[in-house]
Design a protein that fits this description.
mainly alpha, about 0% strand, 7 helices, Non-ribosomal Peptide Synthetase Peptidyl Carrier Protein, Chain A, about 55% helix
Length: about 130
């Protein structure tokens, strides 16, 4: 079954509202998950599980999980690479411009995500997985 952009947005807003114990009407598209909505990384992972279940699609992958975790090993650079920045542009408007001004710290990515970023993320994953 294909989802319209509005159906995706509605389900994302419902999942966010449940996760944050607030009304969907209180959530704005430009609200950042961390600063505006008060989400932490564990809340976010719980939300991802809920969205995967709601849309019957795998959202998280190794690259995605790696970007959400602060760098604690010597194998990953502390800042996003140009390739990672470009790959995240469809989900995080303005990240390319931000990266041109200063390097984007790997552990700051979660703070950049907005409610609309989730909608874009779901839409991209659904398209990529043929839904």
């Amino acid at each position: 079954m294909g989802f319209t952009q509005e159906q995706i947005r509605e389900q994302v807003w419902q999942a966010l509202a449940r996760s944050l114990t607030r009304s969907p009407r209180e959530i704005r598209a430009t609200d950042t998950l961390v600063n505006d909505l008060g989400m932490d990384s564990l809340d976010f992972l719980d939300l991802m599980f809920a969205l995967e279940k709601a849309f019957q699609v795998k959202i998280r992958d190794a690259d995605f999980d790696r970007l959400l975790k602060p760098t604690q090993s010597d194998t990953l650079p502390p800042h996003l690479t140009d390739e990672e920045v470009r790959a995240m542009e469809p989900m995080i408007p303005g990240i390319v411009e931000r990266a041109q001004q200063a390097q984007v710290a790997r552990n700051s990515v979660l703070a950049l995500l907005t409610a609309d970023s989730l909608v874009a993320m779901i839409a991209l994953k659904l398209r990529a997985q043929g839904h």
